[in-house]
Structure formats: C-alpha cells, structure tokens
Amino acid sequence: MNIWTKAGSKVGFTTAYVAIMTFLLFPIVWMVMMALKGYDDVIAYPPKFAFSPTTENFRSVLFGDGGSMSSGAGEFMGYLGNSLIVSLGAVALSLVVGVPAAYALIRNRIGKEDTVAFTFLSFRFAPELMVIIPLYGIFQSMGLYDSYLGLILSHQLITIPLIIWIVRTFLQDVPVEIEEAAQIDGCGPLRTLVRIVLPVIRPGVASAAILAFIFSWNNLLMGLVLSGGTTQPVTVGILQAIGFDQVRWGWMAAAAVVSALPGMLVALYMQKHLVKGLTMGVGK
Questions:
Q1: 73-279 maps to which CATH number?
Q2: Which of 2, 133, 140, 165 has the fewest Cβ atoms within 10 angstroms?
Q3: With a cut of 50, which residues of the chain have pLDDT below it?
Q4: Which residues contact 204 (CB under 8 A, 6 or more apart)?
Q5: What angle (nearest 5°) sits at the alpha carbon of residue 15, between those of residues 13 and 19?
Q6: Rounded to 5, what percent of the chain is helix, strand, coil?
C-alpha cells in the first residue's frame, strides 16, 4: 500500500509540474511559433499547430528586406542598440549612486533606515503615468527630450529603487567586524566599501544589476513619451508592426523574440552570480 501511495504521489507531482510548466511556457512557445509562420498561417482560424516554418519575419526584422513589412523593419537593429545604450547606462549610473546609498543606509544609523529604504522602494510602486507628463515638460525645457542622457536619467526611477533595496538586504549580512578592522588599518568609508565590502557582496550586486537591466529593458512608457526618432528603444520599435491597415503579427512576434535575447543572454552569462546572489545568506 505504501509503494502505491508513493507511486501515486510521484505521478501526481509530475503531472502537476508538467501542467504548471506548460501553462508558463505556452505563451513563449506560441510567440516563437507566430514568428516562424507566414502571414496566412498567422491569421488562420482555427489556429494552425502544423505549418511550414519560414524565416521571413526574422529576416525582415534583422535586415529589413521585404517592402511589404512595416516601415520600422529596417530600423529595428537601431532600436535594439538604443535600448542597449539606455539600459546599460541606467544600470551603471544606478550602481554608482545606489550601492553607496544602500551602504549609507545600513551603516550610518539615523533611526529610520527602514522607512527611508521603503520610501525609495515606493518610487517603484508608483504608476509611471504620475510623473511622465511633468518629466516630458522638464525634458523639453532642458533639452533632454529625445536624448540618451534624458532616457538614462528617467530610467533611474526604475533602477535605483531596485538597486538600493536589493543591495541593502545583502549588506545586512556583512559582519561589521571586517569593516572595523579595515578602518583600524586606515581605510576610510569609501575605500572600505570598494576594497572590502563590494567583493563580499558581489553576487548580490550582480543579481540586482541583472534585475534592474531587465526592468529597464522592458520599459515601454518612458521610451514612448520621452524618446523621438533617434533614441526610440526596442519596446517602442515593436509597435512599428501596427500599420494603418493591419497588424503584422508575425513581424511583431519575431521582433519580440529578438528583443528578448539580450536579457536572456545577460542572465545566462551572469547565472553563477545570480544564483549566488539569490541564495546568499540562506545558510546563515
């Protein structure tokens, strides 16, 4: 009876696991299938699961061949480059500002560290529509509209709260004694942070940077309102698939697949640090 119970539990667990993974992965699989379909197969009803795959959509996204596609087909790689510049710049600036800020919140006791940290995090909770119109007016007056610097600064509303909150949690696990020993040897606060603390929390900083990069990369509203013809990010570029007469679903799906690759590659490349960062302090 015990053997049958264990076998039934194993079958039930496996079935539940397969069902959950199918539910989670089906949208991704469906998007890839749409990207590999021709236009007739995409709009077919009922939907086709058996079809002749084609790379026409990917060729149009990457090289812009095919005049029947949207006007943004030949410009998509430019959109991809814009997103790369903005996201990397936003994360780099957030690390320079956010890591020292998180360190100051942990080590300089002011009595309300949790309140201040939560205030920073609340900026991430607030809808972007609350600030996007004032930002548009400010950027127009300061000449930051349709500029990389303007988009990088606007993305600080997305990346800095994440950096501060995540890095702060890892700093809480760093023993104060190693910093006190460094101070006895003559290290100031900044040198202690750079030479002593950062090597210890490097996995946590890496995981925070990856998450900030992904959120910045996927942002639509900032680019939609604050970018123009020269700095449009990839999230706005995908909208070029929406024409006045039809939506080119195959091109849009192919563009979405291509735009998802950088974030996946960054996560895979930094996987070792990401896993260490997410599990750091579990055994404490």
A1: 1.10.3720.10
A2: 2
A3: 1, 67-73, 281-284
A4: 166, 167, 169, 170, 277, 280
A5: 115
A6: 75, 0, 25
The answer to whether 42 and 247 have CB atoms below 8 angstroms apart is no
pTM: 0.81
Whether the Cβ atoms of residue 167 and residue 205 lie closer than 8 Å to each other: yes
At CA 42, angle to CA 40 and CA 43, rounded to 5? 70
Residue-wise DSSP of 111-180? S-HHHHHHHHHHHHHS-THHHHHHHHHHHHHHT-TTSHHHHHHHTHHHHHHHHHHHHHHHHTTS-HHHHH
Paired strand residues for 247: 242
**Domain chopping of the chain, boundaries:** 2-60, 73-279
Residue 59, Cβ neighbours under 10 Å: how many? 15
Written as six digits, the tokens of 59 are 């060729």
pLDDT for 156 equals: 92
| 51-61 pLDDT per residue, tens | 788 888 888 88
